[in-house]
Each structure stands twice: as structure tokens, then as C-alpha cells.
Design brief:
The protein has 2 domains: 2-274, Rossmann fold, CATH 3.40.50; 296-440, Roll (Pnp Oxidase, Chain A). Helix content is 27%, strand content 29%. The chain has helices at 41-49, 75-88, 100-110, 131-144, 151-161, 203-211, 230-239, 255-258, 260-274, 288-295, 343-349, 362-369, and strands at 2-7, 13-19, 26-30, 53-57, 93-98, 117-123, 177-179, 185-187, 217-222, 244-248, 300-301, 303-308, 314-319, 322-327, 330-337, 351-356, 381-383, 390-392, 397-409, 412-424, 431-434, 437-440.
């Protein structure tokens, strides 16, 4: 085991524990309401033995993670936390989660972060929580905030919330509690985090997010779960394209721990089929994301390509599809998507510049990749020489070019430029792009 620390939404501290090697495919295990990351340790150990890198984290306000500074625990904050954690992992993770965690995962991935995951294993997922059921679940959560004289009272309180289900037997429930000097047990977290319920008010939002999921999904439930029926699970399956269902017979809310071997068998089978450890293969006509991920294994530099439009205004965008072509004559190229709003301007300009970014220019790379900002605002740039294109100050290297040729490149056009001038800084290191993230050189 290795202790990990993440920065969540707003810089909040999120505690984690990792099992296995970070060189292996990542699996992120996210607990439900009232649980702590230790709840997943048995599954994480099994995943590590199966060649996975398993990371267990605490939700904000739970366990060793920091509480929300404003005392609020809305869906947006949880989504922000999950996005930042996934972005910090060494590769695209499969997210394994239950209850509230399942809602967070569906919203995070369905609302704009599909490239951060390679699959979802959702336990006891229920979007359509009736108000009466939500109130009951809220009372059950509130009981966790009580103080107890001994562990049996804790198990009694949890079992009383779901009397028709098998009594929980897992010792991992106790990981969410600590013992004070007076011998009494108390829940490890911010009591306000238990008051946010199961978020039924987000039904419309979550339904829309679930319908947009495109990654492999399995829906897992205990067959005796009193609040997540088989009909509800089938309704969710119909909403998520290609989703699978797996049931653990004779189990209730705590199927993942009380029936851990059964759960792990289901999970590992799903992973080996949908996110295999062996090399993925792309065949023409299959999922283009697989090809994109394969291409993302080639580390590149990061450039900002610029020109001047017919109105005399500077245009620019971030690109990593740049390469040298020839020294005699001096030719370079970059590729621009046919759907780019700037395509016509680059075709008409007859000139462009390629600015290679250094490690200190990551904010510049992000700015010129964004659609929602005036990209040149606050950026130091100049045109060097008559008829030139914008050169970004301080770049690692800049190439001012005349357009030599434009070639068909499928869904891109390939712009070949004849280099008229070049400038470079030999004492800086490049900003890199690898597997969908900005990177920096590591010197051994």
C-alpha cells in the first residue's frame, strides 16, 4: 500500500491509498456516502494481484479527506473532485463505485469527461430515488453520525436501516469510525457531509448524463437490495448504451464487502473483457477513440500555430500535429481539422507561424486550446518583419513561414510551410503532450 494525496475541486485535500504498480492499468475505487476508502481495500488488493493499479480515495468530508470549507456537499463539488483525481492518474481509469459514488461518476463522465475513463462499474446505482426512500436513507446516514459504545451498536444501527436485507457482517464498516480516549466510537468525517442525502433533486440532470455514457458500463446489485430493485437497474441499463447487469444472489447493500469474492469475480471478468491488460487493437471501422489513444502514446511537443486574417486580426490555436519535412528547401508542416473555425483564415492567409512552447508556457497552451477566451488577451506577441505572422514572445522556438502547399489529410488539411525565419532559445526545456495531458521532461 502507498499513501496518495490528491487536490480536489477548489484545491481541497483528497486522501487516497494505492495498491500495485502505477505502470499497470488504473482502477479508481470510490466509496459511497458514509463509507471510507478502507471499505474497498479487499477488492483493491485483489485488483493489484491481477495486474491492476488500484487507487482507493475518500470523498470530501469523509475519512482523511478535508471537509468542504463552506460546509456544502453538492453534486458539483463531488464532480469537480472526481475530475481532478482522474486527470492526475497515469492512465485512463476504470471507476468502481457504489451508491452516491455511482451518481457522481455518471455525472462526471456523462457531462464532459469521457476521455478520463475506460469504463465504469456501478454498484447499487439508482437515479430515480423516491422522496420517501430518500428520506429513509437520509435518516440511515444520520444515524452514522451518532456516538456508540461498542462496534455491535454500529452494526445494529446500520442493519436497522434495511431490516429486510441480510445483516452486515463486514469489519470494514468499522474503518469509518475512530475510538476516542473515553472509549466511545464516532464517525470519521464532517457530519454535514452525511446530511446531503442521495441527491434525488438531480434526477433530470443525472438521467441526461447517463444517456450520454459511451464507455463500457456494468451495473452490479445485490439481489436483496431493498432500495435498488431489479426493475430500476434494468431501467438504467436501457438508458446506458451497451450496459451490462450482474447480480449477486442473496446479498443486499453490502454485497461488495460481505460477498467480496463474488463481487471481485464479477469485477475482474468485466475488466478483462472491457479493459484488458493486453494491448488494445484498432481495426478500421471500429471505435476511433482506440486509434486516438494509440496515437496518444507518441509523445510530442506543443505548439501554437498563428496567422493574420483578412481583417488584420491575429488568430491562433494549440496544435501538436507538427513536424519538420525538409532542410533543403526548409519545410515544416502542421495539420488543421476541417471542422476548425479557423480553417478558411489559414487557407486564405498564405502565411503562418509555428511557436513551440516551453515548460513555463503551459497556461498559453491551455489558453489557445480553449474556445471560451480571447486567446491573445494578455499574451505578449509581435509580428517580426513585413507580412509575417504572430510570434509569441519567449517561445522555445518560432518558425515564420509562407504556405508552400496544402494537402488533403482526411478529416484534416495538411499545411506545409516554407520557413523564412526561425528563432530559438537553447536553454529552455519543451512542454510535452502525452496521452491527453501536458507533460514535462524527467531527467534520470
Amino acid at each position: 500500500m502507498e499513501r496518495l494525496d490528491f487536490q480536489g475541486f477548489g484545491g481541497i485535500h483528497i486522501a487516497g491509498t494505492a495498491f500495485g504498480s502505477p505502470d499497470n492499468p488504473s482502477v479508481l475505487l470510490l466509496p459511497s456516502h458514509g463509507q471510507t476508502r478502507e471499505f474497498w481495500y479487499g477488492s483493491a488488493a485483489a485488483l493489484a494481484e491481477a495486474g491492476r493499479y488500484a487507487i482507493c480515495v475518500d470523498l470530501r468530508g469523509h475519512g482523511d479527506s478535508a471537509p468542504s470549507p463552506d460546509g456544502q456537499y453538492g453534486l458539483g463539488a463531488y464532480i469537480g473532485d472526481l475530475r481532478t483525481i482522474l486527470a492526475a492518474l497515469p492512465n485512463r481509469a476504470v471507476v468502481v463505485t457504489a451508491g452516491l459514488g455511482a451518481l457522481i461518476a455518471m455525472a462526471t463522465v456523462g457531462e464532459g469527461a469521457p476521455d478520463l475513463v475506460s469504463g465504469l462499474a456501478l454498484v447499487d446505482a439508482n437515479i430515480w430515488v423516491e422522496q420517501a426512500v430518500a428520506a429513509h436513507m437520509g435518516r440511515a446516514l444520520a444515524s452514522r453520525a451518532m456516538e456508540f459504545d461498542d462496534p455491535s451498536q454500529i452494526i445494529d444501527a446500520i442493519a436497522a436501516a434495511y431490516p429486510s436485507e441480510p445483516r452486515p457482517v463486514t469489519d470494514r464498516i468499522m474503518a469509518a469510525y475512530a475510538r476516542r480516549d473515553d472509549g466511545r466510537f464516532y464517525w470519521r468525517g464532517d457530519p454535514k457531509a452525511l446530511a446531503s442525502g442521495s441527491l434525488p433533486e438531480f434526477e433530470t440532470r443525472l438521467t441526461a448524463a447517463a444517456a450520454r455514457l459511451v464507455c463500457p458500463v456494468t451495473l452490479i446489485r445485490g439481489s436483496l437490495n431493498a432500495t435498488v430493485s431489479s426493475a430500476v437497474t434494468e431501467k438504467l441499463q436501457a438508458l446506458i448504451k451497451g450496459a451490462e447487469i450482474a447480480e449477486i444472489e442473496g446479498a443486499g447493500h453490502y454485497a461488495t464487502s460481505d460477498r467480496e469474492d463474488d463481487f471481485n469475480a464479477i469485477l475482474l471478468d468485466f475488466l478483462e473483457r472491457k479493459a484488458p491488460r493486453q494491448a488494445l487493437a484498432f481495426i478500421e471501422g471500429s471505435e476511433p477513440r482506440v486509434l486516438r489513444d494509440a496515437l496518444g502514446c507518441f509523445a510530442t511537443g506543443v505548439t501554437v500555430v498563428t496567422t493574420i486574417n483578412e481583417a488584420g486580426e491575429p488568430l491562433g490555436l494549440t496544435a501538436n500535429s507538427f513536424t519538420s519535412v525538409s532542410l533543403d528547401p526548409p519545410l515544416i508542416l502542421f495539420a488543421l481539422a476541417r471542422k476548425s473555425a479557423n480553417l478558411a483564415a489559414f487557407e486564405k492567409a498564405g502565411r503562418f507561424a509555428v511557436n513551440v512552447l516551453h515548460i513555463g508556457q503551459q497556461p498559453v497552451g491551455g489558453r489557445f486550446a480553449s474556445r471560451d477566451v480571447a486567446r491573445f488577451d494578455g499574451v505578449d506577441w509581435a509580428v517580426r518583419g513585413e507580412g509575417g505572422s504572430p510570434i509569441l514572445a519567449g517561445s522555445l522556438a518560432s518558425f515564420d513561414c509562407r504556405t508552400h502547399a496544402i494537402h488533403d489529410g482526411g478529416d484534416h488539411l495538411i499545411f506545409v510551410g516554407h520557413v523564412d525565419h526561425a528563432w530559438f532559445e537553447p536553454h529552455r526545456d519543451p512542454l510535452l503532450y502525452f496521452r491527453g495531458k501536458f507533460r514535462r521532461l524527467h531527467f534520470a
